[in-house]
Amino acid sequence: MSPEAHSAPRSLAEALRVRDDASLAALLRSRPDLVTPVPTDLTQLATRAGTRASVLRALERLDRFALQAAEALAVAPDPASYGTLLGLMAGDAGDEAVAGALPRAVAALREQALVWGEDDRLRLVRTARELLAPSPQHPSPTGLGPTVQEATSGMSPGRIQEIVAAAGLPSTHDSVSAVTALTTLFTHRKKMAKLLAGAPEAAHEVLSRLVWGPPYGQVTAEPAAHLRWLLDRGLLLPTAPGTVVLPREVALHLREGRAHRAPEPVPPAVAPAAAHGPQVVDATAAGQAYTALATVEELLKDWDEGGPAVLRAGGLSVRDLKRTAVALDVSEPVAAFWAELAYAAGLVASDGEADERYAATPAYDEWLEQPPAERWVRLAQAWLTATRTAGLVGGRDAKDRALSALGAGLDRSAAPEVRHRVLSLLAGLPQGAAPDAGSVLARLRWERPLRGAQRDGDDDLRSRLARWTLSEAELLGVTGRGALAAHGRALLGLPPAAGAGSSKAGPAGTGAPAPGSLAAPDAGSPVPSGPGDKLPVHHHRAPDRLAPLSAADQAVAAAAAARLLAPLLPEPLDHVLLQADLTAVAPGPLRRPLADMLGVLADVESKGGATVYRFTPASVRRALDAGRAAADLHAFLTEHSRTPVPQPLAYLIDDVARRHGHLRVGAASAYVRCDDDALLNEILADKRAAALRLRRLAPTVLAAPADPATLLEGLRAMGYAPAAESAEGDVLITRAHAHRTPPRTAPEPVPDGPPPPDATLLAAAIRAIRAGDLAATAPRKSAGEPLAGGELPRTSSAETLATMQAAVLTGDAVWIGYVNAEGAASQRVIAPIRVEGGFVTAYDHTADEVRTYPLHRITGVAELADD
């Protein structure tokens, strides 16, 4: 091993050079932007790791304690020893919890290449120091001001000597030694205590207001006596006319050596708010999962013949969202959530026609054919990975434009990570425990303090995403009563909870929230569940951060979730209960053919655990218009009712059927014909027909200037049951036309930066970086003028050929400059094997394989220096 390997690294590149492959892989995994594209060598990797954008992204991914350690290093001398850092974090008293957690924080900073150097010379990368260090424009998060040396840099030597004398120090011959003496005084605990003991009481109050920041204050041209006492002794130093600052050394003395008021070495625990039986949780979640399926189905059924129009700027109008909310019997935010969920799952899209409207996609028909559990898994997986955020609907974007459902501007790249993290925290609680929402938010803020500081409106975005996650998970059925259900846990790819067995719950849906309620049970106000009361706060270890699942893992997780959910979902029924008041009660979900037919024959009056349908003349006529005969309707009801068909319902069907089609409406503009001229006389005599402007053409024919549809509606409003007919005189059967978009793919999530590299890419990247670094740093024999960094060697063709032939004979490796066919230049270390026909065949250390190079593309060659 070379002596350089034993010496302390002098740069980040040298520190990276002595890392092993596992350490480099950890760096590239935690900061994937560094590997896109793959750096040519370790010097380029170090340069990229120090860029402002990359460092800021790395700082945003630090937890609160690691960030506090980085902030302490930003205000510490550069370089700083580990003992200095420990003193800034733990203070003079020495906090044991801080001392125990600090090695982990330093290791995390080292792993991400934010800190390098040995423990006696820790260095924070310059860009991070600039981002975290204090300045008047960007106050330090620690609340510390500049050092004495920095604050006195523009001060006159005479004034510095006055301060030294007032502080009780001997005068010096120059300003540098004076500032050094003053700094030594301020960092000496006993001498500083003696100096402050003589300060006026009001001066102590001033110092107490500035000690934890901000350290800047305003003074008048004639400061009060207590302020003059502080200024004379350098305890406050002027930075600008009328502005003073508390020097860093003074603040640290008053803080007892701590850089932070409250170091947070331990993450806050996620506190359980209420406990429920696992079976109750699973059953509640399953009931809500079924409600979610029914709601999405109802939404797309409402848009089956073409949904609302697409706004010019994209998305749903406020009016259409309100109408959809009324149709689903939910609030507008909930309607926006369901529309966005269907869109994320690829079940709805715009049709792309001239009169652009939203409609179901062909994938919706395929989705309907799947078992209920598999349909739910598709919705839940789409929700987990979607970056579109329904909670933003109704808000304003950065340009003060309204954000509409299904419109642009709803993507938030942090949404999938927050959803996974919130659910993983729930998975770390005892089985059946619902979390306290406040403790979840506190934990997320500890894990990503800088990202939490980026505000998106009145509240920080991550907190809002977490609240929406808790609500939407409950609405979707991933959680039940606030606790993570077994099928929700499987969906995340987590193993079953300890002690979890097969869940044999009672009727699915017991205790499920109302279909129209977006709000999950508030963790701050737990829902009582009998024996399930408040739980003590435990420091349960949540699962590690959930990495994105591969396609194969997603399939396995989906199958496991569907397998756990399927037994909890209610079996579709093949019957209803007919009642004498012209209603039918469906005591549970109905099989699809029965539900479809009943939806035509009757109107839904109420929904819930049992759906109530009401038969009316209009609904029966709708079934007759669809081509059903009265006998078909009687047979259908008799077959599917567990109770006898009531007489009033049978009479209603027969009465509507008897009158259905007695009148015929066609196009004249429109006409009415009927074999019973007395009925036509009755229509003409009815005052309500005046608006139709009917006139008799023949004893059995009336004509009107209105179109057939208007004439049909007018006669039906008068209580008649006309039927439309074709130009040939046949009765027109009106069946609902299912409008579908062309094939559409689900919207792609917006990534939050480059994706983490997989193991194959990491291995290849490290191999390429190592090889490129070998070529760039291999010692070479000097020949002529030394080359600048990155410059290719230059030799004549004869010299190149002679050096290559000599290397073949000796078996030595050489350093070459090479330009490929695309004009890209590179440096390589090769071991020539043979030279013939204008080509050199050699083992390329850079690529770790044997390659052949045209001699005319080699710019020059140099022998490697002896070790």
UniProtKB/TrEMBL annotation:
Biased composition range(s): Low complexity: 498-526
Residues passing through the membrane, by range: none
Coiled coil: none
Residue ranges constituting the WYL domain according to the UniProt record: 799-861
Domain of life: Bacteria
PROSITE patterns the UniProt entry points to: WYL
Domain annotation Helicase XPB/Ssl2 N-terminal: ranges: 576-698
Region (Disordered) location: 133-154, 498-540
InterPro entries according to UniProt: WYL_dom, XPB/Ssl2_N
Name under which the protein is recorded: DNA-binding protein
Taxonomic source organism: Streptomyces echinatus
Lineage summary: Bacteria, Bacillati, Actinomycetota, Actinomycetes, Kitasatosporales
